[in-house]
Amino acid sequence: MAELVGDKVWRIQGKTITLPVRIPNAEMAAAIFRASPDQAADILQGTGLRPLTVAGRAFSTLMLVHYGEWALGTYDEAGVGLCVLGPGGRPGLHIVDLPVTGAFTQEAGQDFWALPKWLMTSDLVFDGQSASISVHDGQMFVMRAHLKAGRLPLPFGVRAKAPLWSRLDRGAQAGVLLRGAMPMNMQGVHIGRGTARVELSDHPMARRMAALGMTGRPLLAIHARRLTGDLDAFRPAGSGSLRPCRQSGSSPVPRADPNTGSPGTYRAALALSARASYSATVGAVPAAPALTGTASAERMCAAQRRPSSADRAASHSPRAAHTPGRPSQWKRSTRAAIGANANMARIIARRIAA
């Protein structure tokens, strides 16, 4: 078992690993499926999590990833995930099964992040926008899958972090509900309805996949030629959370409803959409600075407030000249971008629905 020897510093199998660790080059294929909320709730029993549902349906994910050489080695991974709501109604992805082909990453994943990694043998192959895998647990056949992404290539990269909830009954953090994020900086992305062919056995992982609807057609299939990012430590649920920002003269930002995930879920989706839209128009979105502690949270809140007239008067940068009756320079420069992004959103929606 790994030993925590310092803040985010682990000692494992004679090696010292300091978090975050950089994923320099990985390739990923993923599909999202509809699932039964009752079946999903059964799988989540004892975790402190519950399924995130929309229109009476839960949502599951199947992810196939090949990692090039990095701190945890080079290996293949097959992940089965479920979209959930955690304490306070915070949405995220909970990994149900995560077989890998490397013993080092198996132990590191269990101890560092409480991820349900177990050792498999597999033959993951990527071919263009498709990925195929056959998974065995020892000599026992588990599942076989072929994922083909949608036909729509994104002309821009995607930079995001997928929130995660994890809990494991073994390892260095056994029995603790953790909250973290998976970096999702993707390039060479294809997206759309796509297809999935999944063959399952009677293995426990295969039974969970069947319960989560993974034998049907996916709602969405994605392929990313390159996946990168920094994977940081996960924290116990409830620690290090930021307080809601308060605008001057306004009420606090509303918390997410514990039953529906709104408005928190909506704001998260809106923020991700805005980042992708900005990337499409301007380029890569710069990474946000790390925020820790109450003082940093207050600085972030202050930065989000609209400057007052006194603030503008104290500024050394004079306001841009504006001709009455004519749109300002900022409005003129952004109208074209907004229109272009709206057109792109309509095209993507039509292509996915096709």
Describe this entry's structure for a reader.
Strands 4, 5, 6, 7, 8, 9, 14, 15, 16, 17, 19 and 20 form a 12-stranded mixed beta sheet that branches. Strands 10, 11, 12, 13 and 18 form a 5-stranded antiparallel beta sheet that branches. A 3-stranded antiparallel beta sheet has the order 1-2-3, with helices on one face. It has 7 helices and 20 strands. The relative contact order is 0.14. It is of the alpha+beta class.
Radius of gyration: 22 Å
Task: Figure out the total of helices.
Answer: 7
Gross morphology: globular
Annotation, overall tally of beta strands: 20
Give the biggest sheet. 12 strands, mixed
Distance N to C terminus: 49 Å
Q: DSSP strand (E) fraction?
A: 35-45%
Oligomeric composition of the shown chains: single chain
Task: Give short descriptive properties of this protein.
single chain; twelve-stranded mixed beta sheet; 7 helices; 37% strand
Outline of the structure:
The protein has 354 residues and is of the alpha+beta class. Helix content is 25%, strand content 37%. The protein has helices at residues 37-43, 103-113, 204-211, 264-281, 293-304, 309-314, 329-353; strands spanning 3-6, 9-12, 15-18, 21-35, 50-51, 58-70, 73-85, 91-100, 117-119, 121-122, 125-127, 130-137, 140-148, 152-153, 161-166, 178-183, 185-192, 195-200, 220-231, 235-236.
